[in-house]
Amino acid sequence: MLETRIYNTDTSITLKEKEDTVAFLFNHLEQYGDKKEDITKAINFSLKVSDPALKPMPLGGFVLNAYMDNRLVGSVVVNKTGMSGYIPENILVYIATHRDYRGKGIGKQLMKKAFAIADGDVALHVEPDNPARFLYEKVGMKSKYIEMRYSKK
């Protein structure tokens, strides 16, 4: 049976749970993931953890983890945007299911639970070749824009 745990400013996460979540997302996002430092920043933002790398002060959000037999099998990180209407109130930054548990509905359950927990609408960014895009469409997400970025390096 799938057990979920929500971590936010009201429900703290232990250092070990946080490290496990970062490692899990790093490993199971595969080619669609980010560096561990960036995953950590997103989690810190969602938990409003003081972090000099986060400016301005984090607005919060939540981390939703799924466990089967005490094994981490799925994770979602949602950050609040501080906006409404023209930009959704939340951005789903990361979602991953353990590669051995894919195709069992865990991702779908996590998405639905994340939508229920989030206060307001939820956006996410997905690469066009990411097969998870079909899951996002199944749970009712629509592709409204193509995101483009300019990076100052």
Structural summary, described in words:
It is a single chain. The chain has a five-stranded mixed β-sheet, with helices on both faces. It has a single domain (3-138), classed as Aminopeptidase (3-Layer(aba) Sandwich). The chain has four helices and five strands. The protein is of the alpha+beta class and 153 residues long. Helix 1 (15-28) crosses helix 2 (36-47). The protein is globular and about 40 Å long. Helix 3 (106-117) links the parallel strand 4 and strand 5 (122-124). It has helices at residues 15-28, 36-47, 106-117, 133-138, and strands at residues 3-7, 61-68, 71-80, 90-97, 122-124.
Relative helix content: 25-40%
Largest sheet: 5 strands, mixed
| Shape designation | globular
Q: Tell me the strand order in the biggest sheet.
A: 1-2-3-4-5
* Derived structural class: alpha+beta
Task: Return the domain count.
Answer: 1
Low-confidence stretches: none
Distance between the termini: 46 Å
What is the arithmetic mean of pLDDT?
91
| H/E element order | EHHEEEHEH
The CATH architecture category equals 3-Layer(aba) Sandwich
Key features of this structure:
single chain; 153 residues; Aminopeptidase
State the gist of this model:
This protein is an alpha+beta fold and 153 residues long.
Strand and helix map with partners:
Elements: E1 3-7, H1 15-28, H2 36-47, E2 61-68, E3 71-80, E4 90-97, H3 106-117, E5 122-124, H4 133-138
Parallel strand pairs: 4-5
Antiparallel strand pairs: 1-2, 2-3, 3-4
